[in-house]
Amino acid sequence: MRSVRAKAALGATAVVAVALVLAGAAVLLVLRAYLSDQAELQAEVTAREVAAQVAREGDTASGTLTIPSTDDRPVQVVDEDGRVVAVSDELEQISGTGTTGVKPQPLPPGGDDGDGDGDQDGQDEQDVDDPERGEVSGKEPRFVKGTATVDGDFAEYVFAVVEATTGAGRTVTVYAGAPLSVEKDAVGSVREAMLIGLPPVLVVVASVTWLVTRRALKPVEGIRAEMAAITASEDLSRRVPEPATGDEVARLAHTTNETLAALEASVERQRRFVADASHELRSPIASLRTQLEVGEAHPELLDVPGAVADTVRLQQLAADLLLLARLDAGEQPGRARLDLSALVREEVSQRTGDRVPAAVDVTDGVEVAGSHGQLVRVLGNLLDNAQRHALASVEVSVRRAGGSAVLSVADDGTGVPDAERERIFERFVRLDDARSRDEGGAGLGLAIARDVARRHGGTLTVGRSAAGGAQFVLRLPAL
Fold first, then answer.
1. I want to staple 163 with a disulfide (CB 3.0 to 4.6 A). Which of 137, 177, 221, 448 is the partner?
2. Looking at the 3D structure of the chain, how many domains does it have?
3. Greater confidence, 92 or 275?
4. 301 and 440: one domain?
5. What letters, b where the CB count within 10 A reaches 16 and e where it falls short, cover 335-372?
6. Residues 385 and 284 in one domain
7. If residue 221 lies in a helix (H) or strand (E), which one and from where to where?
8. Domain range for residue 302?
9. Residue 451 carries which DSSP code?
């Protein structure tokens, strides 16, 4: 099952089915408990009514007990010896009450001491006729389940068990039943209705889920189709349709378009990079070839210093291109602990051939984490740029500002126009196009410097120095 719509419909149907089954089971349990409680209540009411009459009326002259009408509910009265002393009308069979007898037996004479002496007869007769002696037990009734046949109808009953004392002082137990047929019929009807209604409900849920999912995924299909077309045509300028729903699918389409835009920009940047690199390499290679060909034909005309300079330029350009390729590939810098102040002092002291000596003003103990080689490369590129533009001074400073280490390289040249302060960090961009390539460089130094700064979690910006020239500021997280 590969369709998302089918999976969603099946999942929703399964969840609803489980929920309905659990809810139905809970309803049936509650209904059964309620009806069972009602049956027990009816049985208890009947049992107490019978017990109250037995206690109130006492023994009859025939030695039996009389019970009131019970509306076809089975009633059985048993004495302490298990003798059935009274039953309801038309009771033919009973079980579950402890005895199955349905034929009442006369009670033995009350108060007989067994010696045949009639001294107590008058008192016994007084006790039989005294209704104040009878009472119903105050204990909570017990409930038992059993069966009974009343007027030919067999059914299951719940029996309430209540004890009572007759006017003659005898203790009897009253079993009064209430039918369980209402409970079973009601529960059965509800269960049958649930079973009949469950399949149509699940069909409706599955259909609605299928339609809703299909409608919701329609924009996704549009995105997929457009992405397939973009892949086939290799036209990265195309964009997927963005629905105006503002939901997750719309955000997916927006993110996809942003990814396409970034990919298009990256491919375009790579194309420009290859074109510019080819152009930059062509000039020194052609110059070097010309000099070697001339030197081969006329050795006395070979410009060795020029050939060496072209070779050095090729070497520097190749190193720059290799570093940019590693940065574009996502190479992460090292995390060694570096003393930025010492690094600046060491690098400046080794630049003995600079046209304008650099003045150094550093604060000791400013440390950062990163790659020693890459940070040296950044400083060297900034100093090379300052040397090309400075008139008489280049200043390098290092200080701590809050949680940042700040490296500044300033010159007193013509500076960078405000409109060009971001453009100069693009690759192969030079603002001094009128100068020769040998003097102006390939336009990669500042681009490399900013990429390295970003890889180290920092920033590289340009502004105006106090002397009116350019001031490049590198900020890195300080340790």
1. 137
2. 3
3. 92
4. no
5. eeebbbbebbbebbeeeeeeebebebebeeebbbbbbe
6. no
7. helix 181-233
8. 236-331
9. H
* Same domain assignment for residues 79 and 120: yes
Of 144, 169, 186, at which residue does a domain stop?
A: 186
Distance of CA 243 to the CA centre of its chain: 25
Count the Cβ atoms, other than its own, within 10 Å of residue 317: 17
| Whole-structure pTM value | 0.50
> Cα–Cα distance between 75 and 104 in angstroms, integer?
12
How are beta strands 135-136 and 153-165 bridged, if at all? Answer: antiparallel
Please tell me the distance from the alpha carbon of residue 38 to that of residue 28, in angstroms, as a whole number: 15
Are the CB atoms for 79 and 184 separated by under 8 Å? Answer: no
Residue 224 lies inside a defined structural domain of this protein: no
Q: Can you point out the beta strands (E) in 330-432? A: 336-339, 358-362, 367-370, 394-401, 404-411
CA-to-CA distance for 479 and 341, rounded, in angstroms?
13
Closest CA to 161 of 170, 174, 171, 172: 174
Contact predicate 86/97, CB 8 Å: no
Taking the C-alpha atoms of residue 123 and residue 373, their distance in angstroms, rounded to an integer, is 125
CATH number, residue 405? 3.30.565.10
Same domain (yes/no): 319, 341: no
**Domain-located, residue 215:** no
Higher pLDDT among residues 61 and 312, named by residue? 312
Structure confidence by residue, pLDDT tens digits, 418-449 = 999 999 998 877 765 434 444 456 678 898 99
Domain boundary among 304, 331, 358: 331
The angle formed by the CA atoms of residues 251, 253 and 254, to the nearest 5 degrees, is 60
| Consecutive H or E run containing 470 | strand 470-477
No. of helices (H) and no. of strands (E), the chain? 9, 14
For the segment 205-221, what is each residue's pLDDT rounded down to a tens digit?
Answer: 889 988 888 888 888 88
Residues 13 and 55 in one domain: yes
Instruction: Classify the phi-psi angles of 118: left when phi > 0, otherwise alpha if psi is within -120 to 50, otherwise beta.
Output: alpha
Q: CA 384, 389, 392: angle at the middle one, nearest 5?
A: 100
The sign of the dihedral angle between the CA atoms of 448, 449, 455, 460 is negative
Give the whole-angstrom CA distance, residue 112 versus residue 128: 12
Which amino acid, 295? G
* Same domain assignment for residues 456 and 362: yes
Are 456 and 404 a contacting pair, CB within 8 Å?
no
Same domain, 363 and 397: yes
